[in-house]
């Protein structure tokens, strides 16, 4: 695969302009996996280009838009993830069995968008920024492994508090490319250094090594090791064999300085344990789709695009899939297959609600990410959509699982406030979220003075009571029953019965505000206005709609 611009060995003038480059630090967000405006990733044919000034990720198509918005942002690092080598092509692969994850391989180059050139090797002035971007933790991995307060979650290791270090064996500071020192092992990948004596050992077989770091501990009982290449001013990956856990070091700077490593100038050159776990989950084989043990046939084409799960995001994916299957949302945010707001917007797309909404809409509806035989690039990720909409929410901003109905109500309100449909040209055109709007009217009548009070509320969801017969008992849960028998023994309530239970009159004992005496109120509820679309969030089990059953998704 070649870079998107003509390759040359002669550097242009922009390569020597310090104002067009900003070296990221260990806390910088470097978006090197996905384009900010569309759902293309570094796995796609043309890869991604990372701006060396603002570290925004862009596809080749959207680089021109970025340079028009920011004329000085002309230098980019091109990154292309190569397909994984299929070493087991001749045999069967058990997707449920964990194994050694082969490291991802990339092609990369330095590019100048203004001169439309790609350079054989980065010029001297660009090397620092270029290397930092290449070794930076991707934003996806940062979000997955570094939630707020993550550092405090690693326990302080008592073995590091009172650690006695032997004289350092190194003339110069060790690096992540140093090979394992035990038994003539040539492993140079994911190696660990003993914090007591400085011996470098390779990882366990699951991480591609021979387990010599663990053997060193068994022979010497030196408890703590640090993963080479993960040292930054904010910390490093420590593992204590005695504690059998990832730990943190209260004397981090002093312990590193003992081996000649200055944490203030140290650069990250290897993947952390969290990044390796993130890579494994992102490369899991999803080509085999099953539900309840039954194999499903994948569907492809516009409107049939899947969404990748990242950190318990399935509740969000289910809501977005439902919303963008509706015609008003398609017309509002992907009218005539265009992203009109993005084309005109000059704001930072990572902070723009409209840009991220159109990004998800185009990803789901275009069909570009749902092509048969293109499993590597099929599916989209709505990570930035989640961040911009939920960044201030105490629950939805986390990686915890959430309730889909609660997220739906929150998202509808956020879209009403911050997202203007790109197809709206007149002031009287309604917002697409209005298709869920309904007015519920409550009528309360006093049993003594017979005065009536009406209250109305606008909502997007209708909570229905379930009218169960008190004499109806559940099954005792016979373990020999099949799933079909268990399902048949459960009570089945029709939607009409639920609506009837909502509308029926109920008595409320209270003091009347009009006549001032204890009375019984008669309360009835009805729908004053009906929604165009009524969202359905069934509880566990099934709800019958006439002759049909709606199972929970």
Automatic annotation (TrEMBL):
GO MF entry, a single one: cysteine-type deubiquitinase activity
SMART domains registered for this protein in UniProt: ZnF_UBP (SM00290)
Annotated keywords: Hydrolase, Metal-binding, Zinc, Zinc-finger
This protein's record includes keyword Hydrolase: yes
Domain of life: Eukaryota
Chain ranges of the USP domain: 305-553
InterPro entries: Papain-like_cys_pep_sf, Peptidase_C19_UCH, Ub_carboxyl-term_hydrolase, UBP13_Znf-UBP_var, USP, USP_CS, Znf_RING/FYVE/PHD, Znf_UBP
Gene Ontology BP, a term: protein deubiquitination
One Pfam family, short name: zf-UBP_var
Keyword Heme on entry: no
Domain UBP-type: 155-263
PANTHER family named in the record: UBIQUITIN CARBOXYL-TERMINAL HYDROLASE, UBIQUITIN CARBOXYL-TERMINAL HYDROLASE 14
Name of the protein this chain belongs to: Putative ubiquitin carboxyl-terminal hydrolase
